[in-house]
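Listing 4. Sequential folding, example run.
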Amino acid sequence: MKRKTLYFTAPRHVELREEALPALGADEVLVETTCSAISAGTEMLVYQGRFPRDLEADSVISSLREGFKYPLASLSPEIACFLPNMETAINLVQDGAPIFGERLLVLGQGIVGLLTASLLSEFPLEVLVTADCYALRCDSSPVVRHLSLDPHAPSFRKEAIGFLKQGADLTFELSGNPTALNDAIALTRFSGRIVIGSWYGEKQVEVNLGGTFHRSRIKLISSQVSTIAPDLEGRWDKARRFDAAWRALERIKPEKWITHRFAIDDAAEAYGLLDENPQETIQILFTY
């Protein structure tokens, strides 16, 4: 038997290779892939060659363990493609720890931003404001239409403060654009928190820490899904978070954000679309 494997061979170049499957061991099973999702953040950095070469791909790759249970007929294969990003969204929300009545801001409405905003919309917040530079993603945001803003608009900060009053108590920076950190700092109130879930790779930018930030006591929180926050480890492990992600997928039904489906043989076309015209996409799936 053979398998098809996608390789990133050079910046903006992918290859699909057919490889022989090794013989199954006594404790192994053969799994057939029917569809998979492109990660518009991490995979784009790899596709564009904008990732640090001296950083390991993933410090922790856990098995599904007891969190993976049958039957799974509550979820279609297409919905299940969103599982890794839903786990990321849950991790972000846990790291931010929103409080009843807070005012929240989410910068970036790609898939991780949309899933995070969807989870946050389940909380009893005073206001939830989202922002994305692409109209398609703003229109898909799970907030009242006028509360999803364009961060590139000249009036963006003024509009956002109008809804957030003295500023956000909690801001999530999920845009993948390091310049958005300056918006996050400017729009977060005294003693607020900023959860940084974006991975910038080798992107560099000047962050303004010389203004109000110095006196603001704003807390910057680095968040990444490979680990559980230390203060939660006594009660949460990856199996519990995995189960929570399955249940959240059932509630949120993220398949509504699938904008394109490509056969795996057309992978180069799919990545080219995401690279050159990201404003036309939200979630791209490969079918096998």
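-- end of first protein; second protein begins --
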Amino acid sequence: MQSLLDALQAASGALALVALVVALVALALVLARGKRRSPEGLTPWLADDPILDSLLASLMQRLDGVADESMAQGARIRVMEAASRHAVQRVGLVRYNPFEDTGGNQSFAMALLDADANGVVLTSLHSRQATRVYLRTIIAGRCDTALSAEEAEALRQAGVSAPG
């Protein structure tokens, strides 16, 4: 996403550079011709020079292309930003040992949430006999069933202040 924003900024810089070049070329021509002609305005000078007309038309065409591409990139960025709100952006992980007869923190509670605090809490309870996996749905940072202390901590780590 950041690379698209950087590309958009680069295109904006190119647009400004093209505008600066057009202005400098026009200014240079005005100053160069000012010694030979009376300053009646810029338009009559530009209309009399087919090379300058061609150059300005070419630059304006390129400027229009840069503007069109900038608008297209802006539209693509807006679509990507809207879609990225639903991607996993916040993660919380708590490892623990719920049973005395097992060694190590093999069990865990993991919260996976999007930008709007929607997602799941995945819990795995590991014992010597079996491993059980539970999944709880989280909507706007809330769960419709009671959460264990470890699941609530995983939500807190994922940025949900008061899980419920």
